[in-house]
């Protein structure tokens, strides 16, 4: 059981740079999501760390007195910070004492916050659509340049003319440098909470569910972005005590599909990623958003077709891919195939990613970027191939035959090596 004692000790470590602007973002955008106590805990940790020497260990008793919070309230505040990725907690136990390391991350930038469908959706739920739009407009930036203006900015190479053969460009510093990283929201499916809702709505208990049943329930919850209560309600309706199959997962999948909300706030525009921070935000979004909802956002909030749902379900069930890789496949195929989610195309890409051993969103994006560059050269040899991971479009549609041949070519070269 998770609890806090006044006899505990803790250490605070910064995982990213945190500025005064981040404090404004915390109070204005995060506070409606996490509450005042969690905001106060975050700011107190910042102050403690900055006022202390490098390796100072703090006593939990003093933190409880400073914040005038009970141990339960402090623990709840900490959980909110963990859930939205502002801190990560590591625990070490001994017979008489527990020690914690709190790894503190910076809040998302306003751009990353509003582009994250999870955070923007929670903000709308907390403050209402009108206030959320007002906050978004506050951070609006005008990047439109009139047509009569031509860019005359000097490039890096023009100014510095770097000699890349110089040994200086090959040196590394051998350790991690603090940056602007932010933690990832915790989205784990909670089995205890699921069974709590099961017990409240039926006579069922955990002993009536096999391990493989729970793996499939968790997979479907993740695929469709449903919480423990929603999945419990579905499972209770579809559990047949006297049936040969207690759970018919095809029916559960169909009910889960019906839970997708039609009236959602769509993503206004897909980012044209060109920098590390933007790319990181897109990767995080693909990692966290359920594929069914990601597909829904791509089509302006309209409910996905049954055939499209079956495709992403197959990518999850047959290939064992997580949200991130499925979303990469969906995004890639829609871009390449005139916004048509072709089953054959998706399966061909999925098979290739599986053989390549792609385990993460970044692996999948890098591999598909490699394929895209090769296809670009094949289709339009006179046009230089784009090397940015987001510049994947070609002047012509890429046929399935071309992608088959190309994937075969890549695999042959891999085997030769």
Q: Going across the major beta sheet, what is the strand order?
A: 2-1-4-3
Question: Structural class given helices, strands, pairing?
Answer: mainly alpha
Quaternary organization? single chain
Order of helices and strands: EHHEHHEEHHHHHHHHHHHHHHH
Computed CA radius of gyration, to the nearest angstrom: 25 Å
The count of DSSP E runs of length 2 or more, i.e. the number of strands, is: 4
Please indicate the percent range of residues in DSSP E strands (runs of 2 or more): 5-15%
Poorly predicted runs of 5 or more residues: 261-277, 379-400, 406-417
Give the overall form: globular
Into which percent range does the helicity of residues fall? Answer: 40-55%
- The total count of helices amounts to 19
Mean pLDDT across every amino acid position: 78
Euclidean distance between termini CA atoms: 52 Å
Give a quick account of the main beta sheet: strands, pairing sense, barrel closure: 4 strands, mixed
Characterize the structure shown:
The protein is mainly α and 417 residues long. 54% of the residues lie in helices and 5% in strands. It is built from 19 helices and four strands. It has helices at 20-34, 36-51, 60-67, 71-83, 110-115, 117-127, 129-138, 156-160, 191-201, 211-224, 228-238, 249-258, 276-288, 291-298, 306-317, 323-336, 343-356, 361-379, 400-416; strands spanning 9-14, 58-59, 87-93, 98-104. The chain has a four-stranded mixed beta sheet. Strand 3 (87-93) and strand 4 form a beta hairpin. Helix 2 packs across helix 4 (71-83) and helix 10 (211-224) packs parallel to helix 12 (249-258). The chain is globular and about 65 Å long. Residues 261-277, 379-400 and 406-417 have low confidence and may be disordered.
């Amino acid at each position: 059981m998770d609890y806090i004692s006044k006899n505990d000790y803790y250490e605070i470590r910064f995982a990213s740079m945190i500025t005064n602007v981040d404090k404004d973002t915390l109070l204005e955008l995060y506070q409606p999501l996490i509450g005042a106590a969690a905001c106060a805990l975050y700011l107190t940790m910042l102050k403690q760390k900055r006022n202390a020497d490098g390796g100072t260990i703090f006593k939990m008793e003093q933190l409880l007195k400073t914040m005038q919070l009970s141990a339960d309230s402090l623990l709840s505040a900490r959980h909110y910070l963990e859930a939205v990725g502002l801190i990560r907690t590591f625990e070490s136990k001994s017979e008489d004492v527990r020690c914690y390391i709190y790894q503190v991350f910076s809040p998302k930038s306003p751009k990353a916050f509003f582009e994250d469908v999870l955070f923007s959706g929670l903000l709308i739920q907390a403050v209402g659509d009108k206030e959320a739009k007002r906050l978004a407009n506050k951070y609006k930036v005008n990047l439109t340049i009139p047509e009569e203006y031509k860019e005359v900015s000097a490039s890096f190479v023009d100014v510095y003319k770097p000699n890349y053969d110089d040994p200086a460009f090959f040196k590394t510093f051998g350790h991690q440098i603090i940056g602007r990283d932010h933690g990832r929201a915790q989205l784990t499916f909670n089995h205890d909470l699921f069974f709590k809702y099961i017990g409240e709505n039926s006579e069922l208990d955990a002993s009536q569910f096999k391990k493989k049943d729970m793996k499939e329930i968790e997979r479907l919850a993740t695929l469709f972005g449903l919480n423990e209560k929603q999945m419990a309600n579905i499972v209770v309706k579809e559990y047949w005590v006297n049936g040969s199959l207690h759970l018919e997962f095809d029916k559960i999948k169909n009910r889960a599909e019906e839970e997708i909300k039609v009236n959602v706030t769509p993503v206004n525009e897909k980012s044209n990623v060109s920098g590390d921070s933007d790319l990181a935000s897109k990767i995080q979004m693909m990692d966290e958003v359920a594929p069914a909802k990601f597909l829904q956002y791509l089509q302006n909030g309209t409910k996905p077709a049954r055939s499209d749902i079956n495709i992403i379900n197959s990518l999850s069930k047959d290939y064992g891919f997580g949200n991130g890789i499925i979303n990469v496949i969906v995004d890639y195929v829609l871009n390449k195939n005139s916004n048509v989610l072709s089953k054959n195309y998706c399966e061909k890409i999925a098979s290739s990613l599986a053989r390549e051993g792609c385990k993460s969103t970044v692996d999948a994006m890098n591999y598909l970027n490699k394929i895209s560059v090769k296809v670009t050269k094949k289709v339009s040899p006179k046009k230089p191939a784009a090397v940015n991971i987001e510049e994947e479009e070609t002047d012509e549609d890429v046929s399935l035959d071309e992608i088959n041949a190309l994937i075969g070519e890549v695999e042959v070269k891999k085997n030769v090596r």
